[in-house]
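[job 0417] fold request received: Glycerophosphodiester phosphodiesterase family protein
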Amino acid sequence: MLQGINRKNKQDKDRRETVKEGESQGEELSSIVGKKVKKKKQHFSSYLRVVPQLLEYKLIAFVLLQVVVFGLKKLGMLLIYSTGRVAVTSGDYHFLFRTWQGWLIMLITFLAFFFAMSVDINGTFLLSARLLRKEKVQMPSLIRETFASIPKFINKHGILLCLYVALGAPFLGVGFNLTLTKHYYIPSFVVDAIRTSPRYMCIYVAIMAFLVFFGVRNTLAFPYILVDGKTAHEATILSHRMIRKKWRPIASRLLIFTLQLVALLLLLSFLIALLGTLVTSITDLPRYFNRFIFIFAYGGGVLLLIFFTLSFPAMEALEITRIFMNFDAKEEIFFEKELPKRSFLPLRVWSCCLIASMLFLSFLGTLFFDELFPARTDTKIVAHRLGGYAAPENSLLGFDSALNQSAYGFETDIQRSKDGVYVINHDNTFARTCGVNRLVSDMTWEEIQRLRIADPTGKPSSQHPPSLEELLDYARGKGKLYLELKGPTADLKMADDVSRMVRERGMTDQCVITSLKYSLVAHVYHKYPEIETGYIYYFSFGDRAALDCDDMIMEEEAATESAINTVHNAGKKVLVWTVNSPESAYRFMDSDADAVITDQVSMCKDVEKGLEARSDTERVIDYLSRNPLFGVNISQPIKLGGILQAR
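[job 0417] inference complete; emitting structure tokens
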């Protein structure tokens, strides 16, 4: 009886202790939740306090990447030279698959991507984990750990992740990407082809949907590999499970954090615009002094914007790592008030150096204002397919339309008919332009003359596809002609025949023979030196300026500032194609490119007029927007500043 009472008392005591423990845990949980709520604002400011460390690592990673890539490029160049070539381009890349040098070049490229991923992505996540664990950050050990992480990705699933961040994310426009490929995008001519074809559009949507699915599914793959030590295969599986199980809190946290970053970016852009407005409102100062103050104030704000933009991806990686550690360890992790701080130099020294640099650069900008910020553009306008979108494609009427809009030149395409007549047509068939799905090479000139080219509304016009002879006779003395040797019939015979026709008419100064096939361009360049030649390409690697041609006709993505300068230093001209959007027109019409090839001649003429009517401040803004530092695209925030200032 007594034992039963004692047992019951003991059970009651245990029950009371359990209740008290539960109440204590509840109070502790409430306290934690309360702290979490109170520290939300503090938590975001804590991210801003680690920006110096993030930028320090980004600077080291940038230097390392440039050194390694420079060495790999030199090695690649030696391999290219050993094949008797000076560059690899979109027109002659096939040798890569036929020679041992080509396979070695592709291997070097593969290694470069892996190295870039290790310093760009892996190092950022490893640094994030150390900051979250309150560990002391030592850059040498972090760099060693970053390099040691490379083998973790040399497997099937690791390669897929690498390909996604190298190619998928840049095309998608979101997610983590590499410094080497961050500015890759789908070329405008490909976008135009996709928009006009339902089949291509379906394929495009399917690919984009797959990339979104793959990116979301593997959001936590890198933390699982780098922080938790999982294999790439295990990481992809665990990431998928975690995303599927916790997608609501993960999505909400990432969305809120991203909105905070975007809001800060917009606020900074607004302050820069406001600062520019205040400076330009001072009208009683001498013009050169007003220029100096504006360059210093606006340039300093843009420099601050660049630093913030550089740290943007790293801060996103920091938040993803925190989310991963929270759910993986099942405990809330957040920064405390005191964070480990470390940088190469004290903040005051950095600030003084930046201010001194800005003063010096502002002085140079004021001294050489008209040279650095030209008031007008010398870039010429070339009508694509004779007249662009304003008239039937590749027609004499289209030529007249572009001529009436004061186009400098006219680009067109040449193919050979069944009976050997050279005909003006872009596609291999007449299906799109004339509604007849037959190859140019399968039709006689008599049959082609009965075709009618559709006008911009899709209705048949009075124009038939002209022959090259008709075009040359019609256009003599009226403007520059860029004659592209096009399609499956483009061969050495076509190159010789077209060159002969140009010479017979005395139009060697008016015509430029171009092609996507480098062998044909080089043939004309050497055999007919009096005729100007142009090589059309999408991409290149190597000494592009040493290629055998007079003009380099670059796709938009390939037409970087450095590429244009390199070609100009070799005494050659640069044309950019196909410039059809206002943004692209503004960018390249205000660049050092010699000409732009466009379907929108009137739009480019409007841009040309707008560029010539710019104020001093607009000239500075445009210069800064097209000259991003460290590969950071800051044009949109700067344009926002310009719009606000103009208002």
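[job 0417] notes: DSSP finds 24 helices and 13 strands in the chain. The chain has three domains: 1-38, 41-371, 380-613.
[job 0417] exit 0
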